[in-house]
Design goal:
It is a single chain. By secondary structure, this protein is α/β, with parallel strands linked by helices. It is built from 19 helices and 16 strands. α13 crosses α15 and α18 packs across α19. The radius of gyration is 29 Å and the shape is elongated. It starts with a strand and ends with a helix.
Amino acid sequence: MPGTILIVEDDPAARFFLSAALRDDGYEVVEAGSAEEALERMDGRSVDLAVLDVYLPGKTGIELLTDLLAIDPDLPVIFLTGQPDVRDAVQAMKLRACDFLPKCTDLNIIKGTIAHLVKNVQLQREIERLRAAPLSSRPAGGPFVMGKSPRTSRVLTMVDKVARTSSTVLITGESGTGKERIAQLIHAKSDRANKPMVAINCAAIPENLVESELFGSGKGAFTGAVNRIGLIEQADKGTLFLDEIGTLKPEVQAKLLRVLENRTVRRLGETEDHPIDIRLIAASNVDLKQATNDGSFRSDLFYRISVFTIELPPLRERKGDIGPLVAAYIDYFNKEMVRFVEGVTPEALACLEAYSWPGNVRELRNVVERGIILCDGPQIGIEHLPDEIARLSCSVTDNTSPAPGLPLGQSLLDLERRYIQEAIQRANGDLTEAAKILGISEEELRKRLNHSK
């Protein structure tokens, strides 16, 4: 989730300490010492949140708030001030500031407020991005959105690399992780994109029909048989996707291997081989390597289809993808049902992120569809979630949990004192050197030390 935060604070030391604390949490920080500098730094740049001081040289923080909202009306802004004034707070909130906090506020609460607002704005931007995407870029049955977690990014990098080749691909992962979606993406990014992609769920075809469905049949091959090309031939010049390939019988596996090695297919009841040009993508939710050891899957076919393997992690191991996926499905079902749901409440999103998702992305899709049906307002809430998810009673607004390495009850001022002490220790008591470490003047450092006594 970490994003980009603008900090506008004329006190260089206070700006340094807050920036350091946020960078420790993974945020990118843009610093400015005045409203004018902030507007210059914002030129052509997008940030996820702004933290402003009220009293700045030149334009005040309140005036800067108006300028920032003119640039980005949806930008969340919070004020941190050492001299809280009720009139300033009222004016800021009227101008749609999200919060107004004194600098003595517990740093965990400040961080929690920032995390909550950044998550919300990123989710809203994801919805807007999906709404702007052309319908032709969205596969049938729902949007293709994997998310932004590191593991997902690695998967998408692998997709980009293998799509440009003709290599066979094996996609593994639990049921519902989106294996067919990945196959669709590989096909869409390949030079076969304008040719057919034929998707087959091997487990769904009756056992006595598998061979004729896959390979086709000649007239008289069996009672009532007519000349008919099979699904493999229908994918000629395009992509053949075999889902749950591990359920195929050994004799069918042998025929499939022959197709891949010879690039020909022989229909049932015929002696003639028909040349084909297909790119095979296979998928399985079982360990095919183990199946070869057990003798239920041919080892030669396994090595033939696993030239390039992509493993999809379960949703419970990529919780950072849940927000973007929820946004994508809300947008999709809004269009399908002609609804106008804007998003989910922070509490509902927290519950969704805490759930273990045994059915993975497919289950999440169903939960969002159910929520859209039940929701009568602008947001899906906890009351619209299934009981097993709603009973988790999570809340993103619970900001009392300390950040890692940060004692409970520590304020920004406490953090400042800690940084100063650490800098002095690193400088072996040399205040000139400590000031250089902190990026402030020695005069400013001495002033801070006097204030902390």
